[in-house]
Structures are given as C-alpha cells and as structure tokens.
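Shipment paperwork, digital attachment
Item: protein structure file
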Amino acid sequence: PENWPPLVHYPLTPPSSPAYTASPELARLLGPTRAGLLTALATPASTSELAARHYLSPATVSYHLGVLRRSGLVTPIRDGRYVLYRRTAQGTHLTTDRQ
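Attachment content:
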C-alpha cells in the first residue's frame, strides 16, 4: 500500500566455510566442531578469534576447548591479558594427515 515506509532488502549470504577443515576421520572421532577447532589451532588462537573464524559463539568455543583441554589435546597459554590455546603434541599428532 501507499502508506508503507520504504524498505531496503539485503539478501542473506551464508558464511563461507572456515579456513581450516578437519579430516572426515577426525570429525567422526571428535565431532565436526571440535575437530574443526583442533585443526584451526595450527597457530595459537584465543576463544574470540576461533569463534569469529568458525561462526560460533565464544561460549560454544569455550565449551569445546574445555573438552579438548581435559582430553589433553589443547593447552591454554597466557599472553599478557589474553589466553591463547594451542595444540599439544597429542593434538598435533591427531591432526597430521597420514596417507
């Protein structure tokens, strides 16, 4: 109708996939979210960095990092006022592609 205010419409573009994709075998073992986070930790990263990269909430990433930490696959390291996570040797071993 004539009385409606103008409306600007932007199509929703789905996010691209994360830069690091876990192997299907690792995803079956850990679940796709944990496997993706573990694979992404090729370099240390904070919870908020991982959340932004994987389109997850920081709380979700924190939960999954806690499970990975208790499993001995990642370890937290303090960098000033930030906490970064890095893979342990065991976590790196799991993410190494063996053919």
